[in-house]
Amino acid sequence: AQKVTQAQTEISVVEKEDVTLDCVYETRDTTYYLFWYKQPPSGELVFLIRRNSFDEQNEISGRYSWNFQKSTSSFNFTITASQVVDSAVYFCALRSGNQFYFGTGTSLTVIP
Amino acid sequence: EAGVTQFPSHSVIEKGQTVTLRCDPISGHDNLYWYRRVMGKEIKFLLHFVKESKQDESGMPNNRFLAERTGGTYSTLKVQPAELEDSGVYFCASSLSIYEQYFGPGTRLTVT
């Protein structure tokens, strides 16, 4: 069965701190895709990154970085030097087969 | 380029009433998806259209939910009659490929 677990329901950090959002997934497929989305207060989900199961290279985009480890079925997301604008709900998702499977989301609050 | 739009943004109805949600995908996107997020839970897949055809409706909770996509353009999701457990945020997403999705802002449905 496919499943995505985001164990952290809510996180609060002070501005400029680093924060890591955890994501653990389950799938029996050998080919799959992992995603992170950001949901700001406006409501829409904003695509951040896609990773396929054959590419375990970590990725850095500005203050954002992602650590994909197949050995632990994890796809963690780190924000460096957090800013107030990073406050949002972040969803990890798995595409396996023909469907997307989302986690329950992690609500991040960055305190100025 | 206009994004995915959804109407209404918020709907409050009484149990037993009917509500119709609308989604306008990004122009040219053949794939259209409906999802639902119940408070605090994961975003769950409802169904997937390819043009006007239902590709996968395995996530539809029961026969009180009816989705249509007229002419392969906009889509509607009707709930009739609404029950309390139908409350949540209904997201629509569209895409050209199966590897990414662009989400709308969602419709918050409250059934009282």
Please outline the major beta sheet of chain A. 6 strands, mixed
By helix and strand content of chain A, what is the structural category?
A: mainly beta
Radius of gyration of chain A: 14 Å
* CA(first)-CA(last) distance of chain A: 41 Å
Low-confidence stretches of chain B: none
Mean of all residue-level pLDDT scores of chain B: 93
How is the quaternary structure best described?
heterodimer
Estimated helix fraction of chain A: under 10%
Mean pLDDT of chain A: 93
Chain pair with largest interface? A-B, 22 and 28 residues
Structure description:
The complex is a heterodimer of chains A (112) and B (112). Helix content of chain A is 0%, strand content 55%. Chain A is mostly beta strands and 112 residues long. In chain A, strands 2, 5, 6, 10, 11 and 12 form a 6-stranded mixed sheet that branches. In chain A, strands 3-9-8-7 form a 4-stranded antiparallel sheet, with no helix packed on it. In chain A, strands 1-4 form a two-stranded antiparallel ribbon. In chain A, a hairpin with a 2-residue loop joins strand 7 (59-61) and strand 8 (64-69). Chain A starts with a strand and ends with a strand. The model of chain A has no long low-confidence stretch (mean pLDDT 93). Chain B is an all-beta fold and 112 residues long. Chain B has no helices and 11 strands. Chain B has strands at residues 5-7, 10-13, 19-24, 31-37, 43-50, 53-56, 65-68, 75-79, 88-95, 102-103, 107-111.
Q: What labels would you give this structure?
A:
heterodimer, A: 112 residues, mainly beta, six-stranded mixed sheet, four-stranded antiparallel sheet, 0% helix, B: 112 residues, seven-stranded mixed sheet
Topology:
The complex is a heterodimer of chains A (112) and B (112).
Chain A lengths: L2 E3 L4 E5 L4 E3 L2 E3 L6 E7 L6 E7 L6 E3 L2 E6 L4 E6 L8 E9 L2 E4 L3 E6 L1
Parallel strand pairs in A: 2-12
Antiparallel strand pairs in A: 1-4, 3-9, 5-6, 5-10, 7-8, 8-9, 10-11, 10-12
Chain B lengths: L4 E3 L2 E4 L5 E6 L6 E7 L5 E8 L2 E4 L8 E4 L6 E5 L8 E8 L6 E2 L3 E5 L1
Parallel strand pairs in B: 2-11
Antiparallel strand pairs in B: 1-3, 3-8, 4-5, 4-9, 5-6, 7-8, 9-10, 9-11
